[in-house]
Amino acid sequence: xxxxxxxxxxxxxxxxxxxxxxxxxxxxxxxxxxxxxxxxxxxxxxxxxxxxxxxxxxxxxxxxxxxxxxxxxxxxxxxxxxxxxxxxxxxxxxxxxxxxxxxxxxxxxxxxxxxxxxxxx
Length: 121
What we know:
Number of strands: 4
Strand content: 15-25%
Oligomer: single chain
Distance between the termini: 27 Å
Order of helices and strands: EHEHEHEH
Radius of gyration: 15 Å
Structural class: alpha/beta
Helix content: 25-40%
Shape: globular
Largest sheet: 4 strands, parallel
C-alpha cells in the first residue's frame, strides 16, 4: 500500500483500524513517514508483544493508539472523533480454524459495518 499526497494536501487525522496487524502497521508506517497524523485502533493496549510493532514507527509524536473492538459498536464513536479519513485494515481473526466459515465471515462483516456506521455518523 503506497500512500501518496502532496505536502499541502496532508491534513486531519487518519484512523487506521487494526494498527498492529501486518496491513495496519505497514499502512501506519507509510502514513507517518509522509507526515500524516494517525490514530490507530487495537482491541487492547494490554498486550506488549502486539504493541511492539509500533515502537519502530517514524514520527511517533503523530501517532495515537486507542482501544476499539470491531464487534462492540459503542467503542467506535470515540475512536472516530475528529477523524478525516478511515483506512479499515482490521478483521477478527480466531486463534483456531473455525468449524464453519460463517464463524469467520460474519464477525468480519459485522465489524466492517460497525466501522462504516461510525464513520458515517
